[in-house]
């Protein structure tokens, strides 16, 4: 029973889609992310980075393999959809109806 509770754990350390859409996919930021300086703390010395998935790969071969993976293709498909705005999130939570009652 304990194993059933922990079967679907969220991936730690990944960026949200809205952060990637608004910040990382900007042409200036994308160019800076793809041409990072050597960093000995990151995998592959920060030379092989997938902007869409916010993931570092060890080698160029691993990065090319990642680009062909289902995970990368799903992430790219999700990034093509527009990000939710704050107003849409509030409407979905029912906060707009509460504001109308107060006014």
TrEMBL record:
Keywords per UniProt: Cytoplasm, Metal-binding, Nucleus, Ribosome biogenesis, Zinc, Zinc-finger
Listed GO biological process terms: ribosome biogenesis
Domain of life: Eukaryota
Compartments (UniProt record): Cytoplasm; Nucleus
InterPro entries: C2H2-ZF_Maturation_Protein, Znf_C2H2_jaz, Znf_C2H2_sf, Znf_C2H2_type
GO cellular component: cytoplasm; nucleus
Major localisation: cytoplasm
PROSITE patterns: ZINC_FINGER_C2H2_1
Stored Gene3D superfamilies: Classic Zinc Finger
Domain annotation C2H2-type: ranges: 50-72
PANTHER family: ZINC FINGER PROTEIN 593 (PTHR46095:SF1)
Family: Belongs to the ZNF593/BUD20 C2H2-type zinc-finger protein family.
Name of this chain's protein: C2H2-type domain-containing protein
UniProt source species: Antrodiella citrinella
